[in-house]
Every structure is written in structure tokens, then in C-alpha cells.
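Quick one, C-alpha cells below:
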């Protein structure tokens, strides 16, 4: 069987030279990180040229893992999750959400490839101050820290774009002898999946796009306004629920007051360190507030806390929100490879901004404000651009079967993004989760729908009625939880 082979050979053309490639798969255990549960897999590496054209010398190693199917006679085409970020490693992502993929794994191997620059694949990271991620410094200091990051990277950052990464995935497919792939991309991973299918349609069997990034849209300018819309919807939902409205009356006004107070002066808050528990004092201002609110709004289980946390802040207790900020910032910094993230944004997004269409007034009026957008522009003023395929920003046109998944409460990739991506998809179906956030694979019966779609490769032959019964976390009225 393919997945038990220890050495599998393929060929790769690089700068006109045919190189023998091999992936030696050995028994291993993979996990989401230290202290997290692990699972059995077979792991190996494949060497890839840093520069596919051969003009720049050097090679990198990509980390590959295969989680065997539960069926002893699996289908020949594996299921391939692709992580988001950009900058998260796929192996870490999969092990975090593996229960959501068990229905698919009954009959198919799970093929995991840490995209170049992430995870254990030539990780492109640098120890830059956490606040830089959300742009809390001036433009000058942002540029200074970005230059320091560039100097510490182990490889030329130009060669970590999506256009190069999809060629890596195709090389892995060839090396492992799989006839085709069933792609699942979440968030930024949807961009990778769409471009792989564009470049290698013959190597693609099905595509699942979860939290869709349409090729023709550049991420960045709408982050603040979409996040504000999602937060407003949370406030509206709280006001529409009698228990939440009675406990947190005028929650939108309370939030506006908190923002105004933090604009005047950040609060110095004593919080325990998320890992050590040791007390530390942090400055909690509008930037830290934006990080906490934005990331809590990603998922209905965490957004259910927002009215309570905002109410506490409105009463002068910033500790709960500051603790959430500290935990989410640490988790994001650990999960994302900043160097790879910057290459993607500075090659595939920022250069394509049409400033005549950017809603600067809406951004300024949002709780995030313009700082994040200005920081991205400052970073990309010095970050080198990498290679990008000519058709990269064109919507995918294909008759391959595609399933698109959205949450109508998603603060970063709303359902209309999926509709933009689907404009030239001949065999596509778009399912929308009510009051759901970013990423649907773990919601209700979605895992069964995805498994059925992959098995039959037919988006029309699905029954999504079960999504109407998906659990939505009630709002927390106090720290004991929601009402029973």
C-alpha cells in the first residue's frame, strides 16, 4: 500500500535538470505542540529548490506527514488539509482539529504538508515584538522592526509565495504516487487550494473552500470594516435576546465608551502570564483591545463572551479582556510564521490595492481603525516581493466539484467572498452557517457533509438541512456561563 512504503521516488524538473526525488516515510507522532495530545503518522521530508528557476542557489526541506486511513483498503486519492494564516503549519492545524476530519479519514489517507516557510518546512520566523503584528508602533518603528526581521530570516523571503508553494505540493503528490488530491483549504488555505486547482487541474479531484478568500480580492483594506460589522451583529443579537439585553443593556454604547477611554490613555493591567501564571503588568490600549475583540469574534463560542467582557471593561475591570488579549496574542505568535506571512501579504495583496475604492472613513470609524492597514503598508514598503503567476488574481474557472463553506457571522471572510470566488465555478455549492464564524469544519454536521461530498464528488448530492440544527453558544451572562 502507498502509505506504508518507506521510500518512494519521483522526478522533478528544476531549471531544465531532472532530479531524483524521494520521501522516506517513517513511523512518527504528530501533535499541535508541546503538551498537546499526539497521534500516529508516517513522516518524512522532501528537498525542494529555494528558487524554482534555479537562478538562486540553495534547497529547503519540506515536512510531510501521512495519517493513514481507517479503512485497510482506502481510496487512492488522499484528503489534503491546507492551513490558513497565512503562516500556520498544516500539521499543527490538522492535529488541533483532527476530530473534524475523522469521517473523511475512514476511507482516505490524510496528506499533510507544512507549506514552505511554516511549521517544520524551513520556517520563516523572527522574534519581533508581538505588537508589530497588529501595527501598534509608528510607521518608522514598524519599518525598523521589519528590517530587523529580514536580517534574521534563514532564507531569501521572496521564494515563499503561493505560486511556488503549489508546485511543492504537486511534487509531494508525485513523490508519493497519489493519482490526485482532495483539497480542503481554510481561510488563506482556500487561496492555495484554488491556485493549485488552477495550475494542476489534472491532479485535483475535489475542492472544499472553508472561509473563502476570492482570488480577485486583496486582503487588508476590509479587515477593519468587516470586523466592525461582525461586532455590530453580535450587539444586535444580544439586544434581540431578552436575557442578554436585560443583563447588558446598551452594550454597543458601553463598548464605544470603553474605546473612547482607552484612546485617552491605555490602562496598566496586572494579569497572570498564560503559561507560567506569574503576575505581569501590561499596557492595554485600543490596539490591544482590537486584537482581543477581533480574534474572539472569530468563533461563536468565544464571541459569546464578548458582551460580558465588554461590560466588565465598562465597569473598570479590564483584567478579563487583557487576559484574553495576552492569551490570543501568544497563541497567534506561536502559530504563525511572520516571515512567510509578510511575503504573502506583500506579494499577493498589498501591491494590488486600489486606493480609490478603499473605505478609509469606514476604517477610521471602526474599533480597529487605520493603524493595521498603515502597518501593513509600512511593512511592505521594505519587504521584497516574490514571484507570482500572471493569472493569480483571476477567479478560478473550472468544472471540478467545489464545496464552499461560510459563516454569516465571519469577521474576515463573509459569505459574499465565497460568491465572488464562485463566479466561474461550474459545479459548485455554497453552504452558509447561521450565526457561525470563521471556519465551518468543526460546526455541527459539517464534517459529515464534507465527507459525503469528497466520497461522491458531487456538490448537488448533499443534504445540508442538518446545519439548521447546529449548536450556537448562548451569551455568557456571568463567568459561570450561559443560562441553562
Amino acid at each position: 500500500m502507498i502509505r506504508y512504503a518507506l521510500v518512494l521516488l519521483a522526478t522533478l524538473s528544476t531549471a531544465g535538470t531532472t532530479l531524483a526525488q524521494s520521501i522516506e516515510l517513517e513511523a512518527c507522532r504528530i501533535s499541535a505542540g508541546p503538551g498537546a495530545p499526539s497521534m500516529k503518522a508516517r513522516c518524512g521530508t522532501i528537498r525542494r529548490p529555494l528558487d524554482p528557476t534555479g537562478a538562486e542557489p540553495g534547497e529547503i526541506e519540506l515536512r510531510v506527514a501521512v495519517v493513514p486511513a481507517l479503512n485497510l483498503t482506502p481510496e487512492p486519492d488522499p484528503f489534503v488539509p491546507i492551513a490558513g494564516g497565512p503562516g500556520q503549519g498544516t500539521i499543527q492545524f490538522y492535529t488541533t482539529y483532527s476530530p473534524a476530519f475523522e469521517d473523511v479519514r475512514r476511507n482516505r489517507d490524510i496528506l499533510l504538508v507544512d507549506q514552505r516557510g511554516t511549521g517544520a518546512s524551513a520556517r520563516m520566523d523572527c522574534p519581533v515584538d508581538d505588537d508589530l503584528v497588529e501595527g501598534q508602533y509608528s510607521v518608522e518603528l514598524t519599518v525598523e522592526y521589519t528590517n530587523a526581521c529580514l536580517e534574521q530570516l534563514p532564507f531569501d523571503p521572496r521564494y515563499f509565495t503561493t505560486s511556488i508553494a503549489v508546485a511543492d505540493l504537486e511534487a509531494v503528490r508525485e513523490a508519493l504516487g497519489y493519482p490526485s488530491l482532495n483539497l480542503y483549504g481554510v481561510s488563506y488555505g482556500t487561496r492555495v487550494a484554488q491556485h493549485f486547482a488552477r495550475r494542476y487541474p489534472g491532479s485535483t479531484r475535489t475542492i472544499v473552500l472553508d472561509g473563502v478568500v476570492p482570488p480577485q480580492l486583496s486582503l487588508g483594506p476590509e479587515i477593519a470594516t468587516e470586523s466592525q460589522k461582525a461586532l455590530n451583529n453580535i450587539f444586535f443579537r444580544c439586544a434581540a435576546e431578552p436575557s442578554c439585553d436585560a443583563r447588558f443593556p446598551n452594550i454597543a454604547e458601553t463598548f464605544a465608551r470603553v474605546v473612547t477611554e482607552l484612546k485617552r490613555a491605555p490602562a496598566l493591567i496586572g494579569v497572570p502570564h498564560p503559561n507560567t501564571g506569574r503576575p505581569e503588568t501590561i499596557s492595554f490600549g485600543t490596539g490591544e483591545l482590537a486584537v482581543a475583540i477581533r480574534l474572539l469574534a472569530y468563533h461563536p463560542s468565544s464571541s459569546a463572551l464578548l458582551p460580558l467582557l465588554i461590560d466588565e471593561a465598562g465597569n473598570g475591570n479590564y483584567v478579563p479582556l487583557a487576559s484574553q488579549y495576552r492569551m490570543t496574542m501568544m497563541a497567534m505568535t506561536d502559530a504563525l510564521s511572520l516571515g512567510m506571512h509578510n511575503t504573502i501579504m506583500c506579494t499577493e495583496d498589498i501591491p494590488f490595492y486600489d486606493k480609490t475604492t478603499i473605505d478609509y472613513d469606514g476604517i477610521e470609524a471602526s474599533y480597529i481603525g487605520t493603524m493595521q492597514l498603515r502597518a501593513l503598508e509600512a511593512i511592505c514598503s521594505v519587504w521584497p516581493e516574490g514571484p507570482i503567476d500572471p493569472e493569480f488574481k483571476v477567479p478560478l474557472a473550472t468544472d471540478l466539484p467545489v464545496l464552499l463553506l461560510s459563516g454569516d457571522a465571519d469577521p474576515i471572510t463573509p459569505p459574499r467572498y465565497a460568491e465572488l470566488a464562485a463566479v466561474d465555478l461550474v459545479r459548485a455549492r455554497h453552504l452558509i452557517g447561521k450565526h457561525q464564524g470563521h471556519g465551518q469544519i468543526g460546526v455541527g454536521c459539517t464534517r459529515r457533509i464534507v465527507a459525503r461530498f469528497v466520497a461522491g464528488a458531487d456538490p448537488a448530492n448533499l443534504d445540508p438541512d442538518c446545519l439548521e440544527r447546529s449548536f450556537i453558544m448562548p451569551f455568557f451572562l456571568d463567568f459561570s456561563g450561559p443560562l441553562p
